[in-house]
Each structure stands twice: as C-alpha cells, then as structure tokens.
Amino acid sequence: MSFIEKARRAQIVECAIETIAEVGYAQASLGEIAKRANISKGVISYHFANKEELLEQITFEYYMAWQAYIVPRIEAQKSPKEMLQVYIESNLVFVDENRNHVFAVIEIVSNKRTADGKRFTEDHDETILLPIENILTLGMQEGVFREFTKTSARVMASTIRNAIDGFTIKLMSKPHLDVQEYIRELVIIFEKSTKK
C-alpha cells in the first residue's frame, strides 16, 4: 500500500468510528460513513471489500491500541497488587481518552454476528480474562492475594472485567461521569476483595 492509500484507509476508519459512535451500528451504513468523510461510497469499496471488513479493521485497531496502552503499564509494576490496580486504572483511562473508538467497538460487538450466528467477539471473551487471572494467580503464589480456585479466579476476573465494561457502557449515556472517582472506588473494592 502506498502512503496515500494508507492515509485514505485511516481516514475512512476514523470517519467510521465517529459515525458509529454518534449514530450507532444500525445507522452507520457505508453511504453515511462516505457522506461524513466527504468521499464517494466507491472510495470506501476500493479500500474495504465490504462493511464487515471495515468493522473488523475498527475492532482490530482498537484491540491493538488497547494492548499497546495496557500491557507496558502492567509489566512495569513490581507486585501483583500494583498490577491489578494498574490494570483497572489503565483500562478506564484508555476508555476515557478514546471514547469514540471504544463506543464504536461496543456498538459493533453488541450488534454484529458472524456467519454462524455467534457474537462478533465470542472467541475473544476467554482471552480478555486471562491477564486478570494471571495477576490473581501470581498474587496467590506470592502470598499477596487470598486463595482462589480456578473457578473463583474466573469469577473474580469476570467481575473486574464487567465492572470496567459496565462503567464504559454507562459513560456512553452519561459522558460527564467522574472517571477518576470511579477508578479510585474500583481499586479499593478489588483491593479489599482480593486481599489475603
């Protein structure tokens, strides 16, 4: 791809993100995205085979950006307690700083189905819990966290992830919520509930 083609693809992705975040998945047709990008629908079709490919690109770019933001921050910590705190903090700061992209991905994963009827991210549900479970396991091994069985570690990881995702969804309808206060409260809740 030439520099110009890469720039055009990036522009289309950015306009698609803004469109989906603003009008929702159902209303974000290729025609609507093209209109907002001030290009023809044919230009989108030149760069993306169909709407599904464009949606996959938005989701892929989100997960890559999320991973690049979160992972180094967790790896820089010295203890499992700090890792868990930073996992919570960095997830919510990332959401706050990338609201349109996050909201667009929520719209996509909430509405899109694969050809066999599965949710778009059903296969990713498992992998998103693994970093939390790994932190909990490390915390147990180091004697910082209470004992978890495999099932109870999954329950705790799901609870942490659901608290983050739940606030993200609430932020879509109430954009003036205090993210920092929510972060502080979540850190306290999960520090107490994982403590040995």
UniProtKB/TrEMBL annotation:
SUPFAM superfamilies the UniProt entry points to: Homeodomain-like, Tetracyclin repressor-like, C-terminal domain
Keywords tagged on the record: DNA-binding, Repressor
Domain HTH tetR-type: start-end pairs: 6-66
The keyword Ribosomal protein appears for this protein: no
InterPro entries linked: DNA-bd_HTH_TetR-type_CS, Homeodomain-like_sf, HTH-type_Tx_Regulator, HTH_TetR, Tet_transcr_reg_TetR-rel_C_sf
DNA-binding residues (ranges): 29-48
Protein name, per record: AcrR family transcriptional regulator
Organism (species): Lysinibacillus parviboronicapiens
